[in-house]
Amino acid sequence: MVRLVPVYLYLITLLFLAGCDGGLEPPPPEPDPVGVILGTVTYSGEWPPQNELRELLFVPLKFYPSDFTEVLSEFLKGNLKSSERLQFYVESDTFIVSELENGLYVYNIIANQYGPQPLADWRPLGVYDENDGLIFIEGDTVQISIHVDFDNLPPFPPE
Amino acid sequence: MKIFSKYFVVLLTFLALPSHNQGYAQGTGAELRGVVQSTTGETLPGVHLYITELQTGTVTNSDGGYRIRSLPPGEYSLRVSMVGLQTAIITFQLTAGETTILDIDLEPITMQSGELVVTASRRSQLIGRVSVSMNTITPAEIQSRNIISLDQALDYVPGVQVLGNSVNIRGSSGFTYGVGSRVLLLVDGVPMMGPDQGGMDFDGLPLTQTRQIEVLKSPGSALYGGGALGGVINIITQDFPEQPETTLRFFGGVYEPVRYDTWQTWDGASEYRPFRGILFGHSQKAGDRFGFWLSGKLHDNAGYLQNNTTEGLELYTKLGWNVTPNIDFSLYSSARRNRNYQFLYWNGLRDPLRPGEIRLTGDTATGSNRGLSDRITILPVFTHNINPHIQYSLKGRLFGVAFRPIDRQGKVRPPDKHNVGVRYGGEAQINIQVTDELILTAGGSFDENYIRSDVFVGEDSLMVRNQPEGALFMQAEYNWGRRLTTTAGFRYDAYQIHTLETATQLSPKFSASYAANDYLTLRTSLGRGFRVPSVAERFFNNADFFPLVSNITLLPETSTGYEAGFTYMRPLRSLFSLRAELTGFWNEYQRLVEPTFQPSTGSFQFVNLTEARIRGAEASVSVTSIGQNHQLSASYTFLDPADLEMNQPLVYRSKHLLQLSGRSFFTSWMEAGLDFRTASAPDRVDTDFAFFVSDAEVFPAVYVTDARMRFILEQPESRFEISATLMVRNLFNYYYIERPAIFAPPRNFQVVVDVKF
Question: Which residue in B594, B598, B687, B676 sits closest to B641, CA to CA?
């Protein structure tokens, strides 16, 4: 009988090793779901000359900037997402901005760097002005359209 | 039909045969007769008796009886032998014109070889000699592990997996919420499958009055009909003891709260959840010719999941009447009522202890239901031994179920929401020992299922369903000397599947066992199986709990199974007995019925899916000390379940199953036991289920260990025994699931007190 004790201890150890990883567990918290903007931009009027087209992007913002330094500050902190560079001298183009954190994006613009000053020479060419902005709650995907009228550019800072 | 006619003529021919010894003249010759039984009191059929000096002998009949007539007077030696039992040589005296009665007890060679089973061939056989794979669960195991329902008993049978309320023997079944079982449940050989779902009820079994649970793992359809495609579970109830016997068992315990705070999303989740119950039984003889037993269970369980409480009362009786020395009548009956919540699926792995919801168009299905469930069973059996060589029995059965749903206010819903099902029928069977070597078993059965339910409406909008079925069966067993036994038989089933359509199937069966020596028995079997879809599979049409639509065109499924293996039993150094088994099996299924998602309806439906093949091997070894104080056993099953049309694994089948058990009496008053079972994660699960239920595709491997310690106080003089058992189930608190989207029990502790007098 005493001889069986080591056998039982061995068995218990084996079984403990087999069962010790605990099995099911709560899944790790999901990262906050991220949103996606699928957009179309159309152009009318006469395009500016080539030297004023240093950069052309779609940029969604959660705030109304008073000047473009605030926008670039967010960009440098890594809090800003933008589209890839848009094409010049076309009638329309499409863009995607992904991995947008949830929240209300109130100021969504086609932004153009028109001069050599990277901090100062920016202007909006077109603004998405429907529905009071874009809202992302659970990583939604939204489709928007923006029109740029080179003959009637929006005011900046926004009114 | 021609084949059937041929067999019927053969059957009539055998019925007309005179018993083979009846033609002998009595004269002045002497007669020797008696009964051979094991030392545990079971009569032994097929034992060879040989009078050395006279070079004559016989073989015992199905009741263990024998008779040799017209013997010259004198003193002789009788050699009594059977493979697996110790040969006895007995000297006896014969006197002219007189009958000498010689009853003989035989000792098993090893502790494990004297075990008798009845399921394999519908008559008693030594387990080591049967030609198919079988396991037994003894009352000692039921008591020691405080088994209170059948699923708990099956957890430690090699090759058997319980997925919620579905029993899966060697991969025969996936997961179907217990609907359309491919394993047949019998009580004393009488089918006990639900008339509606065709599933088995894990409660409602007289466990304190169970002599043995036998699990037949080979396709047994030739003898047992439709539901036995994947195997048979037979509950053998007790006979009546010479001395009155009373048993009381009290148990109580708690489930440990889960260790993750994020799962404690309802009030009860952070508490120890209790369960308790009492089992009782009394059996006795009343005079020489009557006997009875009575048993029951009263239990309630708070459940470790939200909306998972159960409470119930079960009562069982068996009455026996020995009408004449050759005629017996018994009546088994049971009644049970349960008031249960049924937890159907979780709210995802982030919230597994609460039922989920499925949002369907315009409606919401809920992951739990509540209801009153009633069942009654009445099984009368009449047995007549016409002579020592011919016996017949007539069995009736009535099995009724009723389910009454309870609404959120706790009130029983209106009668049009109640489900009622009745299965009634009968069976006649005759056993004929045609010669010393040949035993014939033949019979027929008829059953009718009647179901009325608002969820079995189907496409034809009827609420009442009938599904009659009938069968004829016949089997011939021939002993080719002491070592080789062959069995051949068939079963002819007919099921009415529509008003004007009947499905029929001829299922032949062949098996053989060969005792190579006293220790080694080789066996092989092959047979066809057949299962008609249950009423639920064909007509269930409801979205209260899950979107499921009917399929009235569902066809029967069939199988062809082959099996070969050996059993090796021998003593080891006079201290231990060894039992080892190795079996290879190969089963092919046609028109397998599986629940499948139908994108066109956005619902699940039972459909004839595919051709499938399940092959594999099973090995088991068990070592028991001679005094039965210590036992170690291990079993391993390998399965290769393949969908041959899609060339991928069948869903919800584990490839590897391993079970380890050990128990020891460390002193005469203390026993300890440890059980471990593991099943690998299925290679494939039904990912469509996860469209509706979050994380329903999660199905990890299972590693569960149960431990127990039992303390016994026995007073042999007064036949009084009391024992207390401390048990921990799921000792290492491993979190797993036992069916898709249902969290299996966490670690739970219980105390069991048994009193016998």
Answer: B594
- The topology under which CATH files domain A32-149 is Immunoglobulin-like (2.60.40)
CB–CB of A15 and B660 under 8 A?
yes
Give the mutation candidate from A1, A10, A15 for the B interface (greatest B CB count, under 10 A). A15
ipTM: 0.73
Q: How far is B582 from chain A (nearest CA, A)?
A: 23
CA-CA distance, B574 to B626, in Å (whole number)? 7
In this structure, what are the phi and psi dihedrals at residue A104, rounded to the nearest 5 degrees?
A: -100, 120
Whether A24 sits inside 8 A of B352 (CB atoms) is yes
Does A20 contact B at CB distance below 8 Å? yes
Chain A: closest CA distance from residue B659 (Å): 11
User: Do the Cβ atoms of B630 and A20 come within 8 Å?
Assistant: no
CATH code given to domain B2-106: 2.60.40.10
Greatest alpha-carbon span in chain A:
100
Whole-prediction pTM value?
A: 0.76
- Is B656 part of the contact surface with chain A (CB cutoff 8 Å)? no
Q: Which pair of tokens denotes residue A58?
A: 């779609």
Q: Which fold has domain B116-756?
A: Maltoporin; Chain A (2.40.170)
CA atoms of A12 and B101, how far apart (whole Å): 54
Strands (E) located in A2-158: 35-44, 55-61, 92-100, 103-105, 107-113, 122-127, 134-136, 141-149
Domain boundaries, chain A: 32-149
Q: How far is B596 from chain A (nearest CA, A)?
A: 26
Helices (H), B611-670: none
B290 membership: H or E segment, kind and range: strand B290-301
Q: Where are the alpha helices (H) located in B155-225, listed in sequence order? A: 221-224
Confidence of residue B15 (pLDDT cuts 50, 70, 90): very low
The pLDDT mean for chain B works out to 83
Q: What value, to the nearest 5°, has the Cα angle with vertex B657 and ends B161 and B222?
A: 55
Q: Where are the domains of chain B?
A: 2-106, 116-756
Q: Which residues pair with B511 in a beta bridge?
A: B487, B525
Average confidence (pLDDT) over A118-141? 83
Query: Are A20 and B262 inside 8 Å of each other by CB?
Result: no
Chain A CB contacts of B664 under 8 Å are: 1, 4, 8
pLDDT score, position B276 = 95
Residue B662 in tokens? 């050990």
Question: Fold match between B2-106 and B116-756?
Answer: no
**Residue positions counted in chain B:** 757
Chain B hits for A23, CB-CB cut-off 8 Å, are 700, 703, 734-736
Best mutation target among A5, A8, A17 (most B Cβ atoms within 10 Å) is A8
Phi, psi of B673 (to 5 degrees): -145, 150
Host H or E run for residue B314? strand B310-324
> Bridge-partner residues for B334, per DSSP?
B316, B377
Q: Which of B731, B732, B735, B742 to mutate to test the interface with A (most CBs of A within 10 A)?
A: B732
Residue A131 binned pLDDT confidence (cut-offs 50, 70, 90) = confident
Interior angle at CA B591, CA B561 and CA B617, nearest 5: 30
Question: String of b and e for B43-81 (b: at least 16 CB within 10 Å)?
Answer: bbbbbbbbbeeeeebbbbbbbbbbbbbebeeeebebebb
